[in-house]
Amino acid sequence: MDKTARDIMNSPVITMFPEQNLMEAASTMVRERISTIVVVEHDGRVVGILTHTDFAARLRRLPFSQYEFVEVLSRLTSW
Prior knowledge:
Layout: H1 5-8, E1 15-16, H2 22-32, E2 36-40, E3 46-51, H3 52-59, H4 69-75
Parallel strand pairs: 1-2
Antiparallel strand pairs: 2-3
């Protein structure tokens, strides 16, 4: 395969800060149709990633598809 990461990556990278609300992260994922958000400190240093499967693990619903994500949004407020 001659493809590179650049050929299939999403750009620009969607980021959030560690102290941001999970509902905001979930809404962003649905709105932007992405399954991952990069978590960065205010200086831009990457400290982790948040994926749609992280939400599934929290709800103990595995396996979890991106298409079920909208349903998860309605449950987030009960955490």
